[in-house]
Amino acid sequence: MKHFFIIAGGKIEDAFAIEVLKGFAEKTVIAADSGMEFLRRNEIVPQVIIGDFDSVSKETLEWFQKKEGIVWHRLNPQKDDTDTEFALRLAISMGAECITVLGGTGSRLDHVLGNIELLGIGLELGVEIELLDANNRIRMTDHGMVLKKEEQFGKYVSLIPYTAQVEHLYLAGFKYPLADYCLKGFCSIGVSNEITEEQAEITWDYVHFIKKNPVHSAYHQTSKYSTALDAE
Length: 232
Known about the structure:
Elements lengths: L2 E5 L6 H9 L5 E5 L3 H6 L6 E4 L6 H8 L5 E4 L8 H11 L4 E5 L6 H17 L2 E5 L3 E6 L3 E4 L7 E2 L2 E2 L3 E8 L5 E7 L8 E2 L4 E7 L3 E4 L4 E5 L5 E5 L1
Parallel strand pairs: 1-2, 1-5, 2-3, 3-4, 5-6
Antiparallel strand pairs: 6-7, 7-15, 7-17, 8-14, 9-13, 10-15, 11-12, 11-14, 15-16, 16-17
Helix pairs in contact: 4-5
């Protein structure tokens, strides 16, 4: 499986991110604009750099310009899409089958929400995309799934509907099970569930989920298009 990492400009805990990157011997790394700062701090040279470079320091830009073998994509600052979206679409055009975004979360909630929205690109094009930080794993899914407790990222699982409602939702193996439930928006019933069995199962009809698995909690969002997130 061709695994791509996009290093975006949000909050990155260096030790966590380095450990994640070390876990993949075969990978392609794309730096999106100020995501270059993390890479420079840790002397990691990506295969690709993309951005309008309006939020990266001059020193960092010059440091990478001295490196050989990097493919550069310079974007017009006057554009409709974010650097992260351009990076995602570039990765998919390069054959990515799985994409992990580091630096896709942080204090800019508009960017966080925008990046969660971008997970839908993966649904449309059949590419697995996740937002990952030291406390959260966020995914969007349009099908049911089985979660093994020993492999869970964090303690909690949260489900959040991405469309108006998720029909015929079943949760098995959880502390708070559901049977044939209609999960609608504007409520928090899907937040902070826990896996109590060796594995838990989530199934539904006509929905998309955002599944978020933080280190301590995970949530799945349900709706016609569902997104899944795992968080701490």
